[in-house]
């Protein structure tokens, strides 16, 4: 379900980075929908390589987030529910 423009506008004002990322993802998805299989495979291979090369940084950031969440009961309930 797509939020109405008023709700979406409020969300964008409070979470600009998330809105920018989601807009970029939406635009990329339109391009990928038109791409041939070889292009999609190249993109996925590049994404996999980037994730692998940054895995230590991603895991460290995730561990930091989990540690912070453990001190926040509300966040832990949100993850569990």
Structure in a nutshell:
By secondary structure, the protein is mainly alpha-helical.
Give a quick set of tags describing it:
81 residues, mainly alpha
Structure write-up:
The protein has 81 residues and is mainly α. The protein is built from 5 helices and no strands. It has helices at residues 5-14, 16-34, 37-53, 55-70, 73-80. The longest helix is centred in the N-terminal third of the chain and has 19 residues, at 16-34. The relative contact order is 0.05.
Radius of gyration from the alpha-carbon trace, in angstroms: 17 Å
The oligomeric status of these chains comes to: single chain
N-to-C CA distance: 21 Å
Overall pLDDT, averaged?
A: 82
Question: What letter string, H or E per element, gives the SSE order?
Answer: HHHHH
The major pleated sheet works out as: none
Strand content: under 5%
> Which outline best applies?
extended
The portion of residues assigned to helices is: over 70%
Poorly predicted spans:
1-7
């Amino acid at each position: 379900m797509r939020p109405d423009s008023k709700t979406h506008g409020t969300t964008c004002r409070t979470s600009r980075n998330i809105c920018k990322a989601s807009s970029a993802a939406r635009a990329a998805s339109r391009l990928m929908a038109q791409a041939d299989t070889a292009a999609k495979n190249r993109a996925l291979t590049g994404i996999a390589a980037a994730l692998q090369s940054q895995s230590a940084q991603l895991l460290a950031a995730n561990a930091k987030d989990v540690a912070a969440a453990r001190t926040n009961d509300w966040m832990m309930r949100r993850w569990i529910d």
